Structure formats: structure tokens, C-alpha cells
Amino acid sequence: MINYCFQYADNVQFKAASPYPADARVTLKNQLKDDMLVYLGYIFDENSADISNQIKFLNENLEIVISEYNFKRFINDRCKNVDLASYVPRSLQYFVMDDTSPMSQRTGYGTSISRYLVSTFNDMGCNFIAYGGISDREADRLSDYINMMNNYISGFDIYKNTPGGGSIGGFGAAGGKGNDSEDEPPVNVKISLPPKQETLDQLLAELDSLIGLETVKKNLTNLINLVKIRGMREKLGLKTPSMSLHLVFSGNPGTGKTTVARLLAKIYHQLGVVSKGQMVEVDRAGLVEGYVGQTAQKTAKVCDEAMGGVLFIDEAYTLTNAEGEDFGQEAVDTLLKRMEDNRQDLIVIVAGYTDEMKTFINSNPGLKSRFNKFIEFPDYTGDEMIKIFDLMCVSQDYVLNKEATDYVADHLQKLAVDHEEHFANAREVRNYFERCVERQATRVVEEPNIDANSLTTFKLPDVEEE
Fold it and tell me: Where are the domains positioned within the chain?
């Protein structure tokens, strides 16, 4: 990957109408090498380093000659006392210029090379820190730097123009579904098989493109990088500490927990964590029966269906908070045994309201030992809900006139501030959108002349709420 980026740097510099200055003091390839060395110096942590192997990595992969002493001097001179995660590498800027040039857009070539460069930086960083015992500082810095690069290229529609890239905010032409997929009514058991084998880069781009969820994305990026590094250490014959990949997703409804879980199942598959990558969704009714022994059989069957993928249990706290004689605990006991027996090829994600999930996990020592990572899904802000509404309109071929646009923005901003404790977030936005569609249809059907414009335009009466 690194050599390919070097070759592409040469292609960009020496092509006709190159965006790279002809009078530049260094070649674009050497600028790229410098950017890579600065990045690796930035994420380097001396307290968890295997410096001799890391220096060997630098010299072999960056095609440079640098000693341990000079590398540490370089870090002191170039990588300290500055937040490098706020500075976009110059090489990336020129890659983006080339990606978005008229010739690249016309030919369809180059629209993903910037993404390829970001992927190269990510994998290079993971390989580099895999030689030492990874520290929280290294994981955070790597994640922050890669997020900065992704945020930069997303402003140029690089993802949108990349074949197979993720839809923005989870809403796209293919069905118009997104972060609010939890709107679907709970079902006993639902199996989600990926319709196609998307690449890891495509899946990570889709995760990054979801509206909001910044802390969720950062936590998952750190987790994914830890999994990558774990695999690299295994290949190098290094000791690999045990690591639980089971997760607790907590937060209000409609914050994207199910959407993210489906993506994570596919990502785990691409990383080799699970063998198939399907996700089985259940709630209490999908695990519990009303007679002794039946619950264990039902739960075991669901676990069989989830083997090789992810078992997602929504409102998992309902398994233990029922009053009177209840078989939910039988489901929990069966689940814990299967998680232990099949820990190499079964991942379990439990989800629900924040306080209830904390009580659920703390109710059983077995749950507490296996679910040690909580990821909190925050409520959407007013601006984020406006983006979700806009994308719903785009996906269903609706536009808003000026009065309707102003009203929707004001309404959703107020809704984000003044709402009930268990606010439904994107689900509430979708319900509002559907009411707008219904009101618009009622208004338009009475018009004498109906055309495409009237069928696709929301006016103020369509979006006003009583």
C-alpha cells in the first residue's frame, strides 16, 4: 500500500496539468514520506515501544535511513508541542486536488485515491504500534489523526464519488434507510445477512458518514484498530492479551444502535473476528418461553443462528427486571454459557436505555465480566435532526419551499431541546416526516392541476404541527 502511494505521488507530480507546484523544493513523493514520518512520530509512545523493530519498519517501508537517535530528535523537533491532528498533511491536500480535478471526474479515475491514502496511513500506524504494547495514548492519537484526514476529504465529496461508498447519514437511494432503522417494530428474531461483500474501507467509510455519533465513531475506531493490531501481533509471533469484543450499546431509541451493530458485524467479518458476518436481532420475546426448559432451548437455537456473526439483543434489561416467576434469567444463563463455549466465533451486543443497561450488567457477575465496554449513543442535536430530515426528503424526492424550510428548522431545534426523557430521536424525525407526507398528499389531491412540482414540494401547511 505504501509503495503504491509513492508511485501515485510521482504520477500526480509529473502528469500534465499537475496540481503540484513545478517549482516545489521537494518532490511530492518526498513530501509524502515526510508526512508519514511526522504522523508515526506523533503516535509514537516511548513507554510502550519496541524501538529497534519500529526503526527497522521505518527504514524498510518509507525507504529512508534513520537511526533511533535521529528519530527521537525528529520527534522532539517536529512532533511535540503541537496538535498535529489539527493539521492536514500537504500530500493529502494534493491527492485531493488531483481526485477532484475535472479530468479525474470525467474519466472516473482517481476518485478513491485519497481514501486509499487515508487507509494506508491507518494500516501503517497500526503496523507501527503493533511492535510494542499498545497504549491508550497511541490508540487515541491514531484515531484522532485518521478522523482528521477523513473529515478533510469528506468535505470534497470523495466518499460520495467512490464506487461502493457508504450513503451519507445512512440515508441513500437504496431504500432510504439510515440511522433510524430502529423504527422497525421489534421482532422475535431477525437475521440480517450482508447483501454483498463490501470491503473494510467501504464499511469504515459508511460508519464515518453516519450523521452525528462522533464519540461512538471514535470508540469504535479505537476498538477496530485494537483488533487489527492484535492480528498483526499474532502474525509476528508476539504475545496477544485476551480481549473481549462483546459490547453494551446504551442510549435512547432512534440513535443508530441497530444500524451501527449491523455495520460492526460486517466489519468484524472483514477483520476475521467472525466467520460469516450476519447479525441476528432479538428482543426478550425471541429468547424467553413460559415453561421450564423451553427458554434454554429457544435461546440456544438463536445462538446457533448467530454463530459466525453478531447476536444483537435489544432492550436486554427486560431479561432480568420482570417481577414474579420469570424465565429471563434462564436465557441469561444459557447465553453466558454459549458466549464462553463459542467465544472464538460469536459476538454479543446488548442494547437499551442507559440506566437500565447499567443495572442489567451489574445484576450478574458473569455479565459484568464479559461486557466491560459501554458505548453511549447520545441524543441527536437540532442540527443533526435537520440533516436527517433533509436526507429523508432527498431519498424520497421531496423538496421544501422557503417557508417550510424555516419552519422545519425551528421545529426540530425546539424538539431537540424540549422533549421527554426517553426521546425517540431519528424515529421521531421519521414520524414527523411521514406526517408531512400525509398532509402534503391531502393538500395536493384537491388541487386542479397536479404536476411534478406540486407532487414533490412541501409547503408551510404540510410541515406545520398542531
Answer: 2-154, 186-376, 382-463
